[in-house]
Sequence to fold (340 residues):
Amino acid sequence: MMGRKLWLAAAAVVVGALVFASFGIAKPTATKADKVTVQLKWVTQAQFAGYYAAAAKGYYKQFGLDVTIKPGGPDINPQQVLAGGGADVVVDWMPSALATREKGQPVVNIAQPFKRSGMMLTCRAETGIKSPADFKGKKLGVWFFGNEYPFLAWMSQLGISTNGGADGVEVIKQGFNVDPLIQKQADCISTMTYNEYWQVIDAGIAADQLVTFKYEDQGVATLEDGLYVMEDKLKDPAFVETMAKFVKASMKGWDYARANSDEAAQIVVDNDATGAAAIEHQKRMMSEVNKLTEGSDGSLDTAAADRTVDTLLKGGSDPVITKKPEGGWSSVVTDKAKAM
Fold:
C-alpha cells in the first residue's frame, strides 16, 4: 500500500511539472543580452565617463545590453574602425564625420551627448598674441586625424593661409601632448578646456602667462563627441531598438557623472588598463566635461548642426566639405530612446 502511495505521489509531481511546462513557466530562462561595441575617439579618460559610468552602475545591463567599450588613441580613426566593422557605434566629432560622409562613407549622427565644444588654442602671452589677427607669422600646433578640420575652417574664415609666410601661419603637426608649447617649439597649441590646458598649467606655466581662444567664443565651434553609425544599419528595426537602449543607458551614465563627479572620475581610473589616468587630473577633467554635457538628453540640436555645417563650408578654396550634407544626422534613435 505504501509503495502505491509513493508511486502516485511521484506521478503527481511528474504531471504537475508537465502542466507547468505546458504553460511556459516551468523554468525561467535568461534573455540573451544584445552585444554592442562602441569605439571611443580617444584614450580612457573623463571625456567618456558617461559610458564607463553606465557600465559600472549597471545601466547597460538594465537595458539588456552587453557593451564593450574600446579606447581610442593617436593612431585610431573611429570612422575607419566603423567602416571596417570593428564597432557598432563610434564617438567622433561632426567635422570628421561629415568629411568622411562626403568622401563616400555613409556615416550618420544618431545622438549628441556633448552640447558644447571644449576646443581652443592656447598661446604663450610672451609671443605678443592678443587676438586672432596676431596669428600671422606664428607657429600653431594642430591635431590631425580628423581633428584639424575646425582649425582649417577657422583660418579660412580669417583669411589666413596655413602654408606659412609672413601673412600666414606655420602649422605644426601636434602630437597629443603639450610639449611644443612647453618647449617653445610653437607659439600656440591645440588644447581642450578639460584636458591639455590643465597639462600646461601643471607643467608650471601660470594662467596669466597664457592667452586662450575658445572656438565657442570665436564663433567657429563645431559639434564634438557625437555618436555615429553606418547609415544602412538604421534600416534594421532591431538595430535601431538596440541603439535606442544604448543611448538611453549612456545618457543615464552621463547624468550620474554630473551628479557624482568624483566617483565618476574614479570609475574612469578603474577602467584605464594603461594606468596612465591620474585621479586628480580626472577629477578636474570631469568637472569641465560636465559643463559640456549639461542639459543634454542625447538629442541633436539641428541648429547647432547647421552652424557646424556653415563653419565647415566657409573653407575658402579648401573647405572641409563642399556641400551641405544630405542625411548626415537622424533622430530615429533618440526619438525611440526618449519614449522608453
Q: What stands out?
A: The first strand starts at residue 34 and ends at 39. The radius of gyration is 25 Å. The domain at 34-115+223-338 is CATH 3.40.190.10 (D-Maltodextrin-Binding Protein; domain 2).
